Amino acid sequence: MGDKPTPPTSTTVPILVSDFDGTVYRSDDPVRFYARRVADSLRPAQSVAFLDTFERYLAEGVAAADAAVDPAEAKALLEAEDGWGLVQALAADLGLGRPVTQQAFLDSRIHMLDDACGLEVVEPLVDLFAELRGDVRIVLATNSPAEGLAPLLDRMGLTGAFDEVVAGAGKPAGLRAWMAGALEGGRSASALFSLGDHYRNEIEPAVALGAATGYIDRFGRADGPATATAARVEDLLPAVTSWALSRSVGRAHAPI
Prior knowledge:
Elements: E1 15-18, E2 25-26, H1 29-39, H2 44-60, H3 71-79, H4 83-93, H5 98-112, E3 120-121, H6 123-132, E4 137-141, H7 149-155, E5 164-166, H8 173-182, E6 192-196, H9 199-209, E7 212-216, E8 228-230, H10 237-246
């Protein structure tokens, strides 16, 4: 945002909290790997149907429920907030326990460290982070465990891209508690912006506190109000920029 003046005190710096999966990077490779790992625990016919439902969701979002014959499948498609959540719901309906999905999730995180796993960093967003830093505190908040996160960020060229990394955030309740703590000391709720693609995890906690939000609604869920909503994070960058400029505590900035 132009030449950086002396950074303001910590209580005046606005905070941008960004989700990781589906926000800073996007790729269906990790969640496909996850779905296939879970499907490996099913009988062949069940596995084929499971993965077909999963792929329809990735392609169509909640509209995939229109073609569902099984009521349980339709319910899962309508209620899933992302592909990860759909896999969990379908697995539960088929009697697969948490140990199966948890191991599959851990396997998917290991897969993400492999160059064979395609990951697309959203470069315009990362560039905006770099522009805002110094004027805005950039925080990465993810439910991903700390173990393995550092090498993943390194693989993606994101080491050092954030002022703070909150791993194992325990969204949504854990993130709401973190946000409430960040607003202590007289900081206005408008000094915080939460950006993410999972309404219940990233947007709802911020809305409850009166903070600004940017909701990436890839699957057309329209789960609730947000300061700005779009199917792609790139289309939310003007809203993030406008919020940052409005919280610039009176200092001059060059246009972004």
